[in-house]
Amino acid sequence: MIFEVFRQERKGQPLQHAGTVDAPDERFAEIYAREQYGRRQESVALWLVPREAVSEIGEFPDEFEMKYRRVDGYSIKARLREARERAGTLEAAPGAGAAE
Amino acid sequence: MDTQSMDARTQEFLDYVQAGGQVETGDWMPDEYRAKLVKFIEMHGNSELMGVLPERDWILRAPTLQRKLALTAKIQDEVGHAQLIYRVVEDLGKPRSASLDDLVSGKAKFHNVFHYPTKTWGDVGVIAWLVDAAAIVSQKALLKCSYAPYARIMKKICWEESFHILHGRDVILAMVTGSREQFALVQEAVDRWWEPLMHFHGNPIPAEEDPMFIWRIKSQANEDARQEFLDGYVPQIRELGLEIPDKALAKDEETGIWSYTEPDWEKLRAVVTGHGPASEERLSFRRLSREDVAWVERVVLAEAA
Ligand SMILES: [Fe+2]
Ligand SMILES: [Fe+2]
Q1: Chain A contact for B88, CB < 8 A?
Q2: pTM for the full model?
Q3: Distance from A46 to chain B by nearest Cα, in Å?
Q4: Domains and CATH numbers, chain B
Q5: Structural domains of chain A, with CATH
Q6: What is the pLDDT of residues B98-112, one digit of tens each?
Q7: ipTM over 0.85
Q8: How many Cβ contacts (< 8 angstroms) between chains A and B?
């Protein structure tokens, strides 16, 4: 049986995939994982998950490129400048005077 | 089968890895890439496993209890590296038993440095310090390997290797600050190990012609690795008053490049194909211990069944 091993380095950190062990059963998987991923105090927790128990999602289609949900969907520079001009605060704005 | 589109797919894969893309176990990969990965990673696993034998010879002869414990811990780490690495090979399709069969039959290779005997405690220090240092140069470059599961375990391996180097350096420092005889043991060991160390990173084949580089299994040309090793460690060796047995070894201060006497590459080829001074002894020991522990596997599998 193949077990995926996840390892937590310090409390509060995410459990990250570390590697795999091949073991005849769960008991042996525990012993192997402890030996290979924890014997040097490099982990505070290990998760062992039988490979078959993992359901993977690997595709994330984005046909409509919904940029409005992301920061790169917005470019406010020109409008901000115009707004500051109208308000007469352009001179006082952070970075004023410096080349834009 | 449409070979035209297969080629396009392989090309796309090649472009992807060359641009720094990484691949996971379940992803599609060209057969050639898979075969190259297996060959490269398997040799690494074999080297970790065979690499413990020269040091194992000294567990019972270590000069102090503290050294004995440290050496045992290092050996335990190296066997652990072999286990992590063989697991990666297994996921690529080659079972561990097949890797071990090919190792003991002499079909698969392991690193040149593990084909040599360890004559004195000085050798043990030089191995842990300089052989491990040479290895960590290569292993650090593997952190960027296009095959992600291998790159990930390399992180853990590099972390453990740093203890090995320090342990080796400490052994060497104890000896060079000791008696005249102890210093001489270190100097003799450096003399013995210099040639294998210069062989370690392989002949200076240009990266663009190295299939392992083309597929971005490796991210560093052989000669670049050797230069990095020389740059890091020649000064550390010389500052202890030790001499390196190569009169031509010098750094060009302008280019930063080290020149040295061209190593005998034919000799390297002979050593890694099983004609090194300790090759046969090491392989027969591995064969023997494999037979010796076969019952453990039988018992474990029977009990788990
Ligand atoms: Fe190692
Ligand atoms: Fe090591």
Answers
A1: yes
A2: 0.89
A3: 15
A4: 17-304 (1.20.1260.10)
A5: 2-53 (3.10.20.520)
A6: 999 999 999 999 999
A7: no
A8: 43
